[in-house]
Design a protein that fits this description.
By secondary structure, the chain is mainly alpha-helical. It has one domain: DNAb Helicase, Chain A (Orthogonal Bundle), CATH 1.10.860. Helix 1 packs antiparallel against helix 6 and helix 3 crosses helix 4.
Length: 140
Amino acid sequence: MRTSLSDRSGPWRCSSERHRHPQPPLPTNPELEHKALACVLIDPTVWPSLSEMSEGAWTSAPARSLWGVFRSLNAAGLPLDDLGTITQRATETGQGQTVNLAYLQGLLTLADMTAYYAPFYAEQLRFLHGRRRSPGTPSS
């Protein structure tokens, strides 16, 4: 007869295999990422609100690629709102398959036709990135 709860040999023992619960997916929002970058296409003066984000903040490969192209263009002092310049730099950096004219035009259809929301989008992306970096830790 078992005399202690510390006896883990019974059917009530907590086996990690038996009680394993699937982890919820990490928070992402590719549409938010695309809208944030579309704001830069509409009004490049909002770039500073996105420029300091880390590469890990972008979960969508096309958004991450475009963000990298924007960083490269900004560092070179080139315009961030000229589609020709963007696609040329994307091709030069090996991102031409992803960041092409069709992709950029698609971004513009997602945009609210104002860059007013760029700081909000950036803050939301930072929040989601923080949640992905430390799942299970409440974000403040």
